[in-house]
Amino acid sequence: MAHNGFDGRRCFLTGAASGIGRATALKLAAQGAELYLTDRAEEGLATTVADALALGAKVPEHRALDISDYDAVTQFAADIHANHPAMDVVMNIAGVSAWGTVDRLSHEHWKSMIDINLMGPIHVIEAFVPPMIEARRGGHLVNVSSAAGVVALPWHAAYSASKYGLRGLSEVLRFDLARHRIGVSVVVPGAVKTPLVETVHIAGVDRDHPNVSQWVDRFANHAVSPEHVADRIMRGVVRNRFLIYTSPDIRALYMFKRVAWWPYSVAMRQANVVFSRALRPGMK
């Protein structure tokens, strides 16, 4: 990224209607970026667009679509590129979450995690990165993975399949795209106060059970704000960081895993026991 940051930069963001996507879009707007926004929630997207315009930003194109729909993504990209130059920054922020043990997760859970969290960003990369390469102006790609993309959180098998995949492809693209001066960052947030925390589906668990809701509340209280995450993302892009952490606990846990595999294994087994015990009262 150039020294003047995001001023005048064309930035494409997914997940712009709420949470991290919305917070990042509005911070980019305040810094003078030109925004190209999408989300599958039409009303929330319209609100973000209106708020970005109120901050004085340009929002030449926005469209409500589902990023797991390849044709919808490529059509939007074609419409954008027909009228505007290639993007300077592409941010894959949209995502969904479901937790559960393998005997409780439905095929639909597995499929939606991969379709939205992994294939969705791939569709965006296919549609927007080749024009950036062709434009020869450099740029930056941001993929939002998760703490579940670096460590083995209990009951996160389906979610981790998508988020580890996103981290893996980001690592390869970091080197593949370097010769085109396109930086690649992967964000690994822990708990974030977004609608995702409220709507995460726990397979086979009654979320309204007092013991379960108490644990979900505890998780939410530990969460950082989307605005904090947006700040970290933007700072990480300017510094061309590969891994962007949003809280020190995830950095510490990932370091623990890499340098002390055996104690990490013991700790994660224990975490699994605690997690399962906490949620068992709500098992359906």
Write a structural description:
With 284 residues, the chain is α/β, with parallel strands linked by helices. The protein has one domain: Rossmann fold (3-Layer(aba) Sandwich). Helix content is 52%, strand content 14%. It is built from ten helices and nine strands. It has helices at 19-30, 42-54, 70-83, 107-135, 157-176, 195-199, 210-221, 226-238, 248-259, 261-279; strands at 10-13, 34-39, 58-64, 89-92, 98-99, 139-144, 182-188, 201-202, 243-245. It has a seven-stranded parallel β-sheet, sandwiched between helices. A two-stranded parallel ribbon has the order 5-8. Helix 2 (42-54) links the parallel strand 2 (34-39) and strand 3. Helix 3 packs parallel to helix 4 (107-135). It starts with 9 loop residues before the first strand and ends in a 5-residue tail after the last helix.
